[in-house]
Every structure is written in structure tokens, then in C-alpha cells.
Amino acid sequence: MKILVCISHVPDTTSKINFTDNNSRFDPQGVQFIIGPYDDYALARAVELKESSGAAITVLNVGLVDTEPTIRKALAIGADEAVRVNAEPTDSFFVATQIAEYARAKSFDLILMGRESIDYNGGVVHGIVGELLGIPSVSPVMKLDIEGNTAKLAREIEGGKEYLELPLPFVAGCQEPIAEWKIPNMRGIMSARTKPLNVIEPVAVDSGIKPQQFELPPPKGTVKMIAPENVAELVSLLKNEAKVL
Amino acid sequence: MNILVFVESAEGKIKKNSLEAVAYAYAIGGKVTALALGDVGSEELQNLGKYGASSVLHVSDSKFNQGVIQAYATAIAITMQNESADILVISDSSLGTPIAARVAARVGASLATNVVSLPDTSKGFNVKRSIYTGKAFANVELTKTKKVIGIKKNAAEVKEVGSPVSVTPFQVTVPETDFNARITSSEKATGEVLLPEANIVVSGGRGMKGPEHWGMIEDLAKTLGAATGCSKPVSDMGWRPHHEHVGQTGVKVAPQLYIAIGISGAIQHLAGVNSSKCIVVINKDADAPFFKAADYGIVGDAFDVLPKLHEALKAAK
After folding, report:
1. DSSP H helical ranges for chain B
2. Any CB–CB contact under 8 A between B129 and chain A?
3. Residues in B touching A218 (Cβ below 8 Å)
């Protein structure tokens, strides 16, 4: 089985977000970058499938050279080879097109990624890739088992889940609890250094999206503390001041 | 300008988020056509006229009773062409967002999901998107003639602006292979207020000490007509189902009121609630970081405060 896992390179979930150059660019200063948490679940599931029934895992990232440590981490976790599409991931359509172009001739059985990246929050790359390749796409997938040429999935829906069956190949946008995140061990880290990481150039795309400007939410006012014996006051504030009851 | 809105339904009823999508389309201005697929009550469909739809198309073919992403996307793309619609508005949801992706790729549209405001058309067509899991916004211009917009909850206010309209039966032919992802069964909480759509959310954390104490949370939620949520540790420990996990890697909520009980407020949890209008935090630890993100706070033991709060809320009703 050939599995493609697409990962994003995103600020750690505890990062403070700031912009520079007149709010036109993300400010990476002091920010730790990680494999997108949802992508990390997808990767972990791919590695589990490899361990249980054998698979070759290619990990793909669309990013500039600074994403390579993140890609190496994915190799350390268990991917066999990596591809970096040498471009800034400006929007979902751009990224999805790069993935589809790479995957088109490679006949992957499974294309896995997170349900969304935690920076752009589009939640659409899996769907666009599926459409461009003419194969099904399912998201958000919280359980994935392969039996021969058929996959059994659970997809989270509002207030519950639904179970699906579909033939390979397809694209899945993953989320917990599809697998436990894997922490690379020393052997993985050592072997990741010598695993192939190929750099390819992007194809030109007209996404139809032009970024204008970023902004931060208005700062939160200070919290109003209420004594525990005064819950009636809280109720009155919620009703008359916040007007949310 | 022709605008198509895909309306989602559950148990024959149009979802509230989809009414927001209709209201959003109406506010853009133009001819708003709503499209419903599968089994939906006819009165529900007619009433879409009240919220701004000038016509309603209904594909009642039972093949569409289940939301298969690829088949729905094809049906919507065909309808977009058929109605010469330039804009498709969809409400972001577990079904809506993946569909928006495929439709946009199919019809060659500019695509923006997680949109939080009406478009600014004073110069081009600009929308504001929520990014970095609610920590920032991006203003983006959609430059193609065709546009697909996925709106986040609360991006538009549902208002009665018209009267019921007649429903036009509609047929689309979708290739059989589009139904390859076959839905075999589903589990769904019924009769409860669904977390992603709730106006009020009551959420519990590790401070609740165990799943056996969740009755208090549920009772309070019932009085308020609220949905129940929980922190990640609580769902990880299996105290509550995963679909109640609020946070960075769980459900992101945007209610009018979020009440957090016994949740310390890790930044990953805050990422799931920072779009809430008003946040109340009840925690016995005065240093809990959640207080910094709260509008109102009570330092106190959940088991002491919660019953009192419940009584006060009942009294105020």
C-alpha cells in the first residue's frame, strides 16, 4: 500500500500570533513550528497501518526551506521519504493543487492529511485534492481501517458520528481519535537524517484569492469577579449587562 | 447577481446555520435561490422565503437522504451552472465545508471558508476570515467571477425579511460513482441541543472530578436550553464523548454565552471558545488562566457554586 501524508508546518498551539510589515505578514519571531496537530494524527495512523499491514509512506509539505526540520520530524516518526514543494503555502487552493499535481501520476492508495491546518483553518484542502484527482474525499475522519481494497471509516458529524465504507483510493482529512500522536524515538531521529527529502518546484496556480491584510481581535476587557455567594448578581449581569440570557 | 445557498437539514428540519447562510446571501443582495437535497419538510422549505430566499429548489430523490460529500458537491455544482449562480453560500459544518471545497474546484471559483463577515464590495469583493483558530483574522479578496463562501456561525443574523415561497421540485443526475463513499450507519445524540449550533454552552473540566458528576452540568444546561461541552482531558479520559470536546483539536464554538466549570483554560481550550460573545468562568483556583479570558468569574468550588447558580437561574426565568 502506498500512502501519501500531507503535513502543514504551523505555529505551536501555544503561540502568540503577531503580524509585521503593516499587518501584511505573519511574524515568526519567537514562534516554535510544529507538524499541524491534525496532520500529526494522519501521520500517526499511516505509521500504524504500515506497522500492522505494511505500507510505504511519503510525506509531503508545501513550504520554503525553513519547513525542513518539521519534515524531518515526520520522517523520524515513520514516513519513508519526503517531498517538499518549494513554495509559500499562500492559500488552500494553491496547496491542494500542488498536492494533486504531485499525486496524479503516483497512484497512491490513500492520501491522508489533517481536517484543517491550524493557521489557515480552511478545512478544504482534502476536498479540493479529491475533486482535482476525481476520487472521493472524506472529512473529518476519526477512525480509519483498511480491509483489502475497502476502507471503513467513522466521520464526525454535529452531535455524533457516521460510519462509511468506500473503495481505495480516496482522500481523508483526519482528526483525533484516529490514532495516538507518535513521538519519534532515537532510532527514528537517526534514520530520518538519511531518508530522501526531494525538493520539487511548484506549478503555477490562479487561486482567485488575494490576501489583503491581517488583523488581531480587539483586546479582551478585564474580567469582572463575583463572590461565590453572589450568584444572583452574576445572573443579573448576564441578563442586563451582557444581554446573553 | 444570482446567489445559490445550500441548506442542510437534519431529521427533516433546516439547520439554524443554514438559515444564517440564507440571511447572509440575502444581505449580499441579489436573487437568492436555496437548494435542499433529500428528505426535508415542505413547510420548512417554504419558510426559507421568510429569511430571504426568493426561490427554493428541492431535490427529493431519496438517494440524497444521506449527506455523501462527493454526490452533494456534484449536485450543487450542477445547480450552480443551471441557475447561472455566481456565488454559492454554504454554512461551515462537518458536511458543508468539505462540500464547498469540491464545488469550488469543480466550477473554478474563488473559495473562502471560515468567513465571519459580510463581503465588503466597495472595492472588489473582500471577506474577513477567521484564522489561527480564532486568534486572528485575514481580509482576503476573492477575484474570480464565481465565488464559494463558507460562513462561520454568527456571520449573519437571521431575520424575517419576507414571506414563504413555493418550492420547485428539481432533479439532478449524479454519476453512481459519486456515491462510492457509502454511509452504512450513524450515531447521533437526539433531542439535545447540538454543541456547534448552541447559543449557550455549559462546559465542564477535570474540576468536575468524574463522569458521575455530569448530571449537574446537564441539569444546568437543560434549564438554559444549552449544549454541554467539555475540555480535552475529560474527553481523553472517556468521561464524555469526543464530539463534546471543545478546543483547538475539538469543536470550536461561538455561542452567546460560554460557561466553563472546573476548566483551567489551557490555551488549546481557549482556541475553541474565543469566538464566544460572553465567557463565565467558575474555578476554585484563583490563578486559573481562564479568568484572563473571561468576562465574568467566580472563584469557588464547582460543587458549591453550581447548585446555587442553577437555583438563581431558575428563579430569574
Report:
1. 16-28, 42-46, 69-82, 96-107, 214-224, 232-236, 267-273, 302-316
2. yes
3. none
Size of interface A-B (CB pairs under 8 A): 273
- pLDDT of residue B189 exceeding 90, the answer is no
Q: Can you read off the three cell numbers belonging to residue A53?
A: 499491514
Query: What pLDDT is stored for residue A212 in this prediction?
Result: 80
Interchain proximity A220–B293, CB inside 8 Å: yes
How far apart CA A52 and CA B299 sit, in angstroms, is 49
Complete domains list, chain A, with CATH: 2-218 (3.40.50.620)
CATH of domain B195-316: 3.40.50.1220
Residues in B closer than 8 angstroms to A175, CB to CB, are 249
The widest CA-to-CA distance across chain B, in whole angstroms, is: 61
Q: Top-level CATH class of B2-179?
A: alpha beta
State whether residue B290 sits within 8 Å of chain A by CB: no
A187 touches chain B (CB under 8 A): no
Distance (Å) from the C-alpha of residue A196 to the closest C-alpha of chain B? 31
Contact A215 B136 (CB under 8 A): yes
**Chain B residues near residue A208 by CB distance under 8 angstroms:** 109-111, 142-144, 147
> Which residue ranges make up each domain of chain B?
2-179, 195-316
ipTM of the complex: 0.93
Q: What is the DSSP letter of B295?
A: S
CA distances from B78 to A112, B107, B166 (A): 28, 9, 21
Q: Classify B175 as helix, strand or coil.
A: coil
Burial B168-185 (b: 16+ CB within 10 A, else e): eebebebeeebbbbebee
Domains B2-179 and B195-316 belong to one CATH topology: yes
Contacts of A127 in chain B (CB under 8 A): 69, 73, 97-102, 105
C-alpha cell at A173: 482529512
CA distance A201 to A62: 10
pLDDT digits (tens, 9 = 90+) for A137-176: 999 999 999 999 999 999 999 888 999 999 999 999 999 8
Of A116, A120, A41, A115, which Cα lies nearest the Cα of A88?
Answer: A120
Q: Which of A91, A128, A140 is the closest to B105 by Cβ? A: A128
| Set of cell numbers at residue B134 | 480564532
The pTM for the full model equals 0.91
pLDDT in tens, B4-18: 999 999 888 899 899
Is the distance from CB of B40 to CB of B12 less than 8 angstroms?
Answer: yes
CB contact (8 A) between residue B114 and residue A132: no
Q: Which H helix or E strand runs over A69? A: helix A68-77
Give the cell for residue B112.
Answer: 473562502
Burial of B41 (0-12, 13-18, 19+ CB in 10 A): middle
Query: What is the rounded distance in angstroms from the CA atom of residue A244 to the CA atom of residue B20?
Result: 19
